[in-house]
Amino acid sequence: MGKALGRFSGRRTDEARCLAHHAPTTVWPIAFVAWVLLTTATRAHALPTFDEVKQSYRPSDTLILDRHGEVLQRLRTDNTVRKGQWTALQDVSPALRTALVLSEDKRFYEHSGVDWKAVSAAAWANLWNNKTRGASTITMQLAGLLDDDLKRGTGGRSLVQKIGQTVSAQMLETRWRKDQVLEAYLNLVPFRGELVGLDALSQTLFGKAPHGLDYREAAVAAALVRAPNAKPAQVAQRACNVLQLIDTSAKSGDCEGMDIYAQAALQRRDFAASAGVAPHAAQVALRQLSGNSTGTPTRITTTLSAPLQRFAVQTLQRQLRELQARHVEDGAIVVLDNASGQVLAWVGSSGELSNAAEVDGVTALRQPGSTLKPFLYAQALAEQRITAASLLEDSGAQIQTSGGLYIPQNYDHHFKGWVSVRTALGASLNVPAVRTLVMVSPDAFHQQLKALGFALKETGDYYGYSLALGSAEVSLLQLTNAYRTLANGGRFGTTTLTASTTPPPSRNVLDARAAFIVGDILSDTNARARTFGTDSVLATRFWTAVKTGTSKDMRDNWAVGYSERYTVGVWVGNASGAPMWDVSGTTGAAPVWAAVMAYLHQTQPSHAPRAPAGVVQQAVRFAPATAATSATEAPRSEWFLQGTQQSLFAMRTSPEQGKATTGGRITAPTNGTIIALDPDIPSNRQRLTFNAEGQALRWRMDGKEFAQGSSVQWLPWPGRHVVQLVNARGDLLDSIRLEVRGAGVRGAAGKQINFSTPKADFKAIASAAP
Known about the structure:
By secondary structure, this protein is an alpha+beta fold. The chain contains 24 helices and 33 strands. The protein has four domains: 81-267, Penicillin binding protein transpeptidase fold (Orthogonal Bundle); 315-600, 3-Layer(aba) Sandwich (Beta-lactamase), CATH 3.40.710.10; 615-649, no CATH class; 655-767, Immunoglobulins (Immunoglobulin-like). The strands form eleven sheets. The protein has a five-stranded antiparallel beta sheet with strand order 8-7-19-18-17, with helices on both faces. The protein has a five-stranded mixed beta sheet with strand order 24-30-29-26-27. A four-stranded mixed beta sheet has the order 5-2-1-6, with helices on one face. It is elongated. The model is unreliable at 1-28, 653-662 and 743-768 (pLDDT under 50).
């Protein structure tokens, strides 16, 4: 404040300096006194008002508030000093107010800024070289705190400073009330070390707010005003004297205890740099609003809800404690309001349970696993490549790419055969998703994801077909907001964390009809029954649409979904990237998601959205593959984009399928497969598995029979080969061609055989969890 008042302080004018220089010796005392009175009067008139001092006060911490003004987090933003929040006088304990007045200025409520009785006593004592307490009142000390020119130096205050302090104190008393003087003094007085003001002292040394200080604590605080950096023994002695002033019943034994108590209090540093339930959201909010023309804000109002934030933190920590035996220590939660995009909860980590609590799991980039599938199916639906009842084959697939074969696998390594799109998405089957991406193309899907707000670092070709299974890295905030786009019928809008931020208008990035159908599938308990069962934790008592996902090696576990009003995203894993042990979507993130959703809808209902224009409902049935088999799925009522509806769905019989129905067919590997042998792996460990459908099957390699059965293994040998599938009579049922390449294979006799074709990375196996 003193620096702010520098421009108001009186200064010695050129005329005054000239007068002092040329005046005769007898005139000098008169001129000096006149100059002192002039400058001090000018300085006194420039003193600020109480409101100006309070408004210009800047604590060293920034308070992060929720949408209703409740404190969520406290962040230290000034490392040069430790100043707490401005404390109103009514929030200061009566014990401290009494201790301060009795120890520093016992006639505070009687004098008008200067205690002339104390001044006379001090002057008389100085005349006789007696040590006294001094005559500086609380008001005079406050005047010295408000003006840099009046601050005490290492050698004490000069005569001019003392006169200026006296005049300023009297002027303060004419403009300020006594309670304002005492309140400002308590907030501006230096205590110990970097501590300035009562709030910082109280929180640091006593770990409590100023209103809770008892007599002993008040005595220590008052003793530190007199000698901020005194040794503990001196502080204890002064505190004992103060205690006896405010509590006449205090005994000598209390002073002995005071020595120990003061020593312990002065060693405490419990006022942490940051404290609260939203540390990561606080940092983000501060970054968004700092650096403006007014400097670092002292209070930031966010869109968060304090009760929801506390519940989310407690729920996440409780779930992670249950999963500790499975090598899980981190997690994150974000809750969005669908209509406004306001962030209602932001939990960046598990806090004390984490070894990397500073890492913000809401913004950290991780692989999303199967949680990208809804956007892929929505794009394919919008482009009318599929319908929700279209049949996709969930079987072994080997997709030829520029780098070789891409072989997707389901999480459980089992295939379901022909399934509808509804079942494929609801049950989170991987192979149908990859087949859908083949139709859409990785590049087109990549563009769709960018429109949904995902800041992908690489191109669609870089990710390839694994993009369908979440090989790209995204943040929980991006993913949750993308699901909010589904909830809003394909309209994308940015999220908002601070109350003062106005987001730009939303825009259409996804077909509203496709978004509705995907949401209907994600809310369908029967659609996900094949993988999750009908009574999983994802089944809420109110309408919700939800998807889980787990990345490769169980490194990331997700549950993201929305209700009529809210979108909730949960991530569980390890900030270090270490894999979890046997943690799936329903055992990791999903319980937290379900608990938060249930909290949000304790009294608020959630209804299914209305179908947008251009969506029709049609009864459908599924024809069996053959007369000897049952229907693929049970009849039902299905949603369609208008113009794409049909009532009957059946598998189209291909030439290969014809072979299978008449005897057998090779299901893996596919025709044209190229196998690359790894010279670093023993050749007898590199076996290729052949699978087929049919009965009494026999296998031939280059015309020679080598195995029997529907699933056999073969030790690859470099070269081009023809694989044939025959029945017991030797009739040809199916055949494929494949090629085996290798940099070098050791023959049976130990002879090294070299091949000119270099080894390439042809085989990529993706396995993502639902």
